[in-house]
Design goal:
This protein is of the alpha/beta class. The chain has helices spanning about 15-25, 40-45, 50-65, 85-105, and strands spanning about 5-10, 30-35, 70-75, 110-115, 120-125. It has one domain (about 5-125): Beta-carbonic Anhydrase, Chain A (3-Layer(aba) Sandwich). Helices cover about 45% and strands about 20% of the residues. The chain is globular, with a radius of gyration of 13 Å.
């Protein structure tokens, strides 16, 4: 079975392609499987039960059960209409979202990424 990486973000077309290309190399995978939501990091960082958070968690769980997942990439990007918070706040939300996902999926490798205005993908530590 092919290696697959899961991506959780609502990516506009202009940042989807650079994200996929970057993640294929970063995780050394052939395929990138997208699970998207508008501004997901704000919901996952909030850690509150909501329909959106529950939906994301169910989709992540199903993807892990059904595919040979090698990691989860949580992505936020500049000029996000779903989460118009400033970059530094979104980066903090990325970290908190990753912590939240690690509690639910402790065996999974979870990484965070930011896509800037030049469509450059960067890791967020």
């Amino acid at each position: 079975m092919a290696k697959i990486i899961r991506v959780y973000s609502w990516l506009i077309k202009s940042v989807q392609e650079p994200a996929v290309a970057f993640l294929k190399k970063y995780f050394n995978v052939k395929y990138v499987d997208m699970i998207t939501e508008a501004g997901p990091v704000q919901y996952l960082a909030d850690k509150q039960k909501s329909e959106i958070t529950d939906s994301i968690l169910k989709r992540v769980e199903l993807a892990i059960l059904r595919h040979n997942t090698v990691g989860i990439a949580v992505i936020a990007h500049y000029d996000c209409l779903g989460n118009p918070a400033p970059e530094e706040i979104q980066k903090q939300q990325l970290k908190e979202a990753a912590e939240f996902l690690k509690k639910h999926f402790p065996k999974e490798r979870i990484e965070t990424f930011w896509i800037d205005a030049n469509r450059q993908v960067r890791t967020v530590d």
